[in-house]
Model the fold of this input.
Amino acid sequence: METRIVPQTEMAAFVGELMKTARVMAPVRRDGVGYFEWLESADQLDATCVVPRSSPKAALLPRCETLFGWRLEKGEQRIVPPPEPIPQILFGLHPCDVRAIATLDAVFASDPSPDRLYLARRAVTTVIGRGSLADPATAFFRELGVDPMDNGGCDLFLAPLDPDRHVLEIISDKGRALLPACERFPKADDRALALLADLRKSSAAKTEANPGLEQLAAKLAGMFESDLWSRIHEHCAGCGVCAFLCPTCHCFDIQEEQRGDRGARVRVWDTCQFGLFTRHASGHNPRTSQKERLRQRIMHKFSYGIEKFKVPFCVGCGRCVGCCPANNDLRAILRTIRETPSE
Ligand code: SF4
Ligand code: SF4
Done:
């Protein structure tokens, strides 16, 4: 694998080169908070942010997306296909966010209805991951087996050596296509690679090698009627912040919009935390309270996802822990589930 050394001071210049080839989403900082956003200029990059508050999933599953449009022409309805996706680079993704993309890929590529729009966008997406040596306070990705120095799923990976430099690993064909933007950096020497190997070894030692997720899924499958759900939902306000910030949550609604002689069918983010999500046209709602909705969220992430796709729908990024207005802490909920005797 080809490797280069990227000084921290050159990161914005690197992104500037990348922006000549594709649109780039990367961490930016506003009012002291990091977010993933499309860059208008490389100067916007925040090259220190580890896990921004918003995730990069909007690059693959936009908050609002036109599935197709239509217009009336001489009384006939004409279908207007959605625009073709344009090449895009997701820069500076923490390995937990890269793992989250793998779960979205599993869902949107699955039979019997692979999602054509998602897959077309994914095909023109290049993922540039960036590892970290210090874990954010609310993150628990190591408990779920995600190593913050793992380059799996990346086309390019920036592995930190110290605060001043990264080893840039050029991994896939998509990554090699960006070689012209990388050639300005010197090749990594043996000393740098030996240091990286040591850092990886010590990071792996701190990461759970066997997180017991299949056992957790099996246990949850027997807890559908547990009293636990009556307790842990008590503070939940059903605001949906946890789902909208989550890099793996992917529920959506489909709506029709019309103005005059034209309209569109659009897909918009939705969440199982909203009462309206499961309300039938008759007014009946099978999930009558937040108890059923929070149970659904936990079950989907740690039972159904593992059962169907062999991966949890949580990567331990900690966004929901840090941003829940009711201080619901997924780490504590998981601890309680693991400590609850099997029924
Ligand atoms: S962010 Fe907190 S209060 Fe809002 S829906 Fe999620 S768990 Fe409930
Ligand atoms: S459930 Fe919470 S910790 Fe897990 S991936 Fe989603 S936002 Fe991150």
The chain is about 30% helix and 20% strand. The CA atoms of residues 74 and 261 lie 10 Å apart.
